[in-house]
Structure formats: structure tokens, C-alpha cells
């Protein structure tokens, strides 16, 4: 089933179509959340929250071919909200969340993140990312780590492609400085 047809089928009442969309996009949302939050627990929580919101709001999605970008917008907004609430000491997940049928830490995503997390360089990258301002961090993760086009990332983060370009270049400079010992 293609993404537009799965989205359309769910919007027209087929409740079996949404799990196919979750299966298709869970890994990319999980990787974004893991690289941003730095741990599996928060990444799993963000994924679950993201897809619950997507399930509630899928009727408002107009361009069915943009489902992945749309869920990444939801995830990035949740990640930003997490930072704002953490500053004020509030819990960032809504109470009473429902299980949407996915594991909080799927084997494929956890294994790939754990493999990277076992070495010192991966930890240094995570530490360097955590030092960055939030928009720069999201841009760096989506462009440098996920390989997404800057134009798409600009849409996800609701800013201009020029802003994303500046954020990515600044992130590269910070990463070079923080990871100098691994580059030489």
C-alpha cells in the first residue's frame, strides 16, 4: 500500500491503514527523537506521542504524500516543547497516553542506535549536539545525520532554507571544534 493510499484509506475510515503508516515512518521519527533527546526512553515516548497526535489529526492532512514530513513536524514540535517544559520543571508528556501498538524501543532502531552509542565518538557527537541551540540541533540532526534536503528541513522547522543553511554550517563548525580529537 502506498503512502498516499494508506493516508487516504485511514482518512476515509479504514482504521487498519494507520498502522502501515506507523510502520513505515517509525524509524525516522525514532532516530530524530533519539539523536535529539539522547536516550531510548525519551525517544520511545516522543514516538508514541507523535503518532498519537498524528492519529488524532490525520483528517487535517491535505497533502497525503507529505505524511513523513508532517509527522516529523509533530515530533520536532514535541521535542521543542520538551525543552521548554524541562526548563520550568514540568513533565513534557501528556497524561493518560494510549499504547498505539508499537514497542517503545523497536529492535531495529534500538540496535542501530546502541551500536553507535557503544563507541566514544558517538557519545562525543551526542554531547556536542546537546550543547547546540534547539533549532541548530534539529537542523543538524535532520540534514547531517538523517540526510534530508535542507529545503525539506526548512518546511519541517518552519523557517527559510537560508536559515537552515546557516544553522547547518554553524553546527558543522561546532562539531568540528568539539570533535577535533576524532578528526585529526
CATH class of the largest domain: Mainly Alpha
Distance between the termini: 47 Å
Low-confidence stretches: 6-11, 90-104
Could you give a short account of the major beta sheet? none
Number of domains: 2
What is the tally of helical segments? 10
What's the gist of this structure?
Helix content is 73%, strand content 0%.
What is this structure's SSE topology?
Elements: H1 3-11, H2 17-37, H3 40-57, H4 67-87, H5 107-117, H6 120-131, H7 134-145, H8 150-157, H9 161-178, H10 180-183
Please describe what this structure looks like:
By secondary structure, the chain is mainly α. The chain folds into 2 domains: 1-118, Orthogonal Bundle (Rna Polymerase Sigma Factor, Chain: A), CATH 1.10.1740; 120-184, Arc Repressor Mutant, subunit A (Orthogonal Bundle). Helices cover 73% and strands 0% of the residues. It has 10 helices and no strands.
Keywords for this entry:
184 residues, mainly alpha, Rna Polymerase Sigma Factor, Chain: A, Arc Repressor Mutant, subunit A, 2 domains, 10 helices, globular
Amino acid at each position: 500500500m502506498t503512502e498516499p493510499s494508506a493516508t487516504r484509506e485511514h482518512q476515509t475510515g479504514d482504521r487498519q491503514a494507520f498502522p502501515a503508516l506507523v510502520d513505515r515512518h517509525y524509524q525516522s521519527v525514532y532516530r530524530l527523537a533519539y539523536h535529539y533527546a539522547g536516550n531510548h526512553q525519551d525517544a520511545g515516548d516522543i514516538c508514541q506521542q507523535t503518532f498519537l497526535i498524528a492519529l488524532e489529526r490525520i483528517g487535517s492532512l491535505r497533502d497525503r504524500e507529505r505524511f513523513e514530513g508532517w509527522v516529523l513536524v509533530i515530533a520536532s514540535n514535541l521535542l521543542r516543547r520538551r525543552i521548554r517544559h524541562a526548563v520550568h520543571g514540568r513533565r513534557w508528556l501528556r497524561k493518560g497516553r494510549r499504547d498505539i501498538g508499537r514497542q517503545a524501543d523497536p529492535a531495529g532502531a534500538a540496535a542501530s542506535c546502541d551500536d553507535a552509542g557503544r563507541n566514544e565518538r558517538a557519545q562525543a557527537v551526542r554531547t556536542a549536539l546537546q550543547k547546540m541551540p534547539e533549532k541548530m540541533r534539529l537542523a543538524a540532526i535532520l540534514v547531517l545525520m538523517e540526510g534530508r534536503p535542507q529545503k525539506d528541513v526548512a518546511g519541517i522547522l518552519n523557517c527559510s532554507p537560508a536559515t537552515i543553511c546557516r544553522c547547518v554550517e554553524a553546527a558543522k563548525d561546532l562539531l568540528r571544534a568539539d570533535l577535533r580529537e576524532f578528526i585529526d
